[in-house]
Amino acid sequence: MSSSNLSSMIKINTPRDFNFEECLVFLDRSNQELLHRIKDGYLYKLIKVDQELILLKISYKIDALNVEFPLGDPSKNARKLAAEFIVDWFDLEQDLADFYEMALYDNILNQIASKYRGLRIIGIPDLFEALTWAILGQQINLKFAYTLKKRFVERFGEGLMFEGETYWLYPSFDRIAEIDIEHLRELQFTVRKAEYVIGVAKAMSKGELKKENLLKKQDYLPIHNYLTNMRGIGAWTADYVMMKCLHQRSAFPITDVGLHNAIKFQLGLEGKPTINEIKEMALNWTGWEAYAVFYLWRSLYD
Fold it and tell me: What is the DSSP string of 169-183?
């Protein structure tokens, strides 16, 4: 993925199968989201690079993402790392040709793969955010999960005011490693979730859990096993994180309720499919399970 510089802007060339509007639909699915903002066709995102806060203003034109820096021109290295963040966030290095070829002959995916073509798995590049967002979402509805995240970010995250609006960074693991369970209980976290979130933060603070180390494992099973050995990280959470943070195409959160509802709707079933039925249906998806799930999730909020 190449990028070029134009004064205070960088241009990131996008792959053939990329649809910025579809990606924005996914990013705009909750009015409680505060880690990015969509305004007048632009996507705003605050990131931290080399201890420097950088506000990204992203638009799309003619096969490229144009990235402006409203707070001023960052250093050359910060611009490079900002471009890498965006490539990671939008999974731009993934060639989806084989996924669409597979979906063409799949009775569950064929219509939605065509309808949402160009949609990328919108990732969560920060491992701590990916893990704790997944933990927050365990056994509650999505609306309340967003409520908890909003409280968490506003209480412990870093904010920056620009043109009358506040842009937020997700809390750092170092910050959360230092707090007590009661600080999260005040936000309506359960005791268990508070313990899990702080436990992940402490593991990352001690260097026991690092994204680069997980990526070195490469294969699905070693990563999955490593994650599920940690307290609070079950199979669904591990698969979600592998899908959204580690670009594991084989990640398959098969117990996901949204996935079950989407399959039910796509096939016109009276009831939700069983796990064994889903396994049978998904034989054709081998190697592309994560994208199959993501497109099925997308079908739920038309």
Answer: EPPPHHHHTTS-HHH
Q: Where are the domains of the chain?
A: 3-93, 127-244
CATH fold group of domain 3-93 = TATA-Binding Protein (3.30.310)
Return d(Cα 42, Cα 17) in angstroms, integer. 20
Using DSSP, state whether 120 is helix, strand or coil: coil
Q: How far apart are CA 243 and CA 290, in angstroms?
A: 6
Task: Compute CA 142 distance to the chain's CA centroid, rounded to the nearest angstrom.
Answer: 14
- Distance, in Å, from the CA atom of 91 to the CA atom of 44, rounded to the nearest integer, reads 18
Q: Which superfamily, per CATH, for 127-244?
A: Hypothetical protein; domain 2 (1.10.340.30)
Distance CA 148, CA 126 (A): 18
Which residues form the catalytic set?
256
| Distance (Å) of CA 208 to CA 201, 204, 218, 244, 268 | 10, 6, 18, 20, 46
Given this model, what pLDDT does residue 6 score? 43
User: Tens digit of pLDDT for each residue in 157-205?
Assistant: 999 999 999 999 999 999 999 999 999 999 999 999 999 999 999 999 9
Burial class (CB in 10 A: 0-12, 13-18, 19+), 227: buried
> Could you tell me which residue, 5 or 120, shows the higher pLDDT?
120
Measured distance CA(44)–CA(68) in Å, rounded = 10
Cα distance between residue 64 and residue 62, in whole Å: 6
